[in-house]
Amino acid sequence: MKRLIPVIALAMVLASSTIWAADATLSMDVNSAYVWRGMTLNDEIVAQPSIDVTNGSFGVNVWANYDIGDYDGAVDDNEFSEVDLTVYYGFSLQKLEITLGLVEYLFPAGGDSTHEAYVSLSHPIIGGLSVGADFYYDFDEVDGYYADLGLTYAMDLVEKLSLEVSARAAYADKDFAEFYGGGTDSGFHDYTLSLGLSYGLTDALSLGASINYTDNLDDDTLPDGAVDVNTYGGISIAYTF
Q1: What total of structural domains would you count in the chain?
Q2: Angle formed at CA 164 by CA 55 and CA 62, multiple of 5 degrees
Q3: pTM more than 0.70
Q4: CATH number of the domain to which 183 belongs
Q5: Where are the beta strands (DSSP E) in the chain?
Q6: Which end of the chain has fewer CB atoms at under 10 Å, N or C?
Q7: CB 42 within 8 A of CB 33
Q8: d(CA 179, CA 138)
Q9: Nearest to 30 by CA among 52, 50, 46, 42
Q10: Among the listed residues 195, 214, 207, the one whose alpha carbon sits nearest the alpha carbon of residue 237
């Protein structure tokens, strides 16, 4: 818990738009399960608050997972099991959007913290269709990488109501696969299909809902035992100030 104090303090300072002239978004997601990169971390209901603060091209994000239900003794209910602190820098090269970032993973309920560096790319194709790719490298506990490639289609259904559909597939090296899911080889790790809706109540306040389907792609890379939940979804609320 002591390590969380500077993280929370940093978020509060950065969220002060009078000091930094920054834009901040507070959000809360409530999901039927916590699934990360195809792996089930909790098959019960979770709450996931976050704050994202941007000042020009720079940003800071603090995200947390609160387990409302337990998961077969692997995590306890009614406590925070994870807090992620991310700093990032985003820029454009013509139509290519590029984000460079660094993530620190903290586990207040127990477990060693670790760090990832990442690169995220996005480029429009036609209309609301875009292609994206992400590369994550854990240079601390794992010394391994995880990468994904995906397509996203976004459109406005009616005024203030938008739809987003996406599909992504991921590849992981042996070190990442072995550390997290108990895999024995590098290979295609998981895929996810997602459908989301967002409705703007005001210019600052929005509501969202999503449903997702995920599964492993190679048993040697992500064993079946690491995937307890295939279909999951949730609701969200976000406020920008």
Answers
A1: 1
A2: 35
A3: yes
A4: 2.40.160.40
A5: 23-31, 34-36, 39-42, 46-55, 58-67, 79-93, 96-106, 114-126, 129-138, 144-158, 161-172, 187-200, 205-216, 231-240
A6: N
A7: yes
A8: 11
A9: 46
A10: 207
Q: Which residue has the tokens 């290519």?
A: 96
| Spatial distance between the Cα atoms of 173 and 137, rounded to a whole number of angstroms | 10
In contact, 41 and 35? CB cutoff 8 Å: yes
HSE-up of 109 (CA within 13 Å, CB side)? 16
| Bridge partners, residue 167, by sequence | 151, 193
The three-state secondary structure class of 17 is helix
| Tens of each residue's pLDDT in the chain, 241 residues | 444 555 555 555 555 544 556 899 999 999 999 999 999 999 999 999 999 999 999 999 999 999 998 888 778 889 999 999 999 999 999 999 999 999 999 999 888 999 999 999 999 999 999 999 999 999 999 999 999 999 999 999 999 999 999 999 999 999 999 999 999 999 999 999 999 999 999 999 999 999 999 999 999 999 999 999 999 999 999 999 9
Tell me how far apart the alpha carbons of residues 27 and 29 are, in angstroms, rounded to a whole number.
7
